[in-house]
What does this fold into?
Amino acid sequence: MFENSHFPRAKKFWHMGKFHDWAESNVHAMSHALHYGTSVFEGIRAYQTADGPAIFRLPDHIERFFYSASLLRMNIPYTKQEIIEAIKQAVKENQLDSAYIRPLLYYSYGNLGLVPKHSPVELIIAAWEWGAYLGDRAEKGIHAYLLPWRRIHHTQFDMKAKLGGLYILSTIYGVLAREKGYDEAIFLNLEGNVAEGPGENILIVKDGVVKTNDMNESVLEGITRTSILKIAEDMGIPTSIGPITKHDFFTADEAFFSGTAVEIAPITQVLDDSEQDKSPKEYTIGSGTAGEITTKIIRVFKNIVAGENNSYKTWLTYVND
It folds into this structure.
């Protein structure tokens, strides 16, 4: 039996075409994904609007979901539209006005060799009420720990995919950052440039230009990230894509994380521990508070996901359509 204290308002989850009580256990201990991380997933949010809950950029998430599955050579037992409908039903079934949604494709019980040739692919969809990923600090300003370990490189893996097993690095170093008293970690890439957080992209603002990096800098090009670039462009704010050096980062006027879980969170302080032969050094980003451009983008983003900006209606999939 499983209680839901860390999954507020979660009552049921969807598994292979049926809803099950949240407390029910239905995954075998010898499932392939449990041992090798052979799963793909998405993190998706639904927001409360005047017309009921609306899911942010759902088709884009499902496109990436299928792309990730293709890397694991998964035979997905449902179509994209069937998964979209199941996700909407999961929000309805749990009677949620806003939600964090987790679809997961995984190799289940069959064999335990490294190649899952006898393990069928199964799909789980869960939804629950989840606030800001980094808590109150998400608005006040994140204190980040710049890691001495590097991000997996884009020459080693297709960075467009979200595979479960690869997130063990994010878990290890996210825990480490918190043990050291920081809110979140930041990776450099093998070139020594700023890559991303354990589950977030990084954007900086310098001289009025919003800048972020791309897949060639060993990052997942997040859906929230692309949304912010579009929002900034529409606001008349110049944008740039390219490498972000440590100097660029430390001397930025503003910096912030972006991602489905974190949404948009200003970064105000960083401890640079990236050089193991040097003592760590603390940096304040800009004024040490959420910057003007970051604050404006957050305001517009919240307006969009609440369904109050008709220019971005196509980014919303309404659950009660």
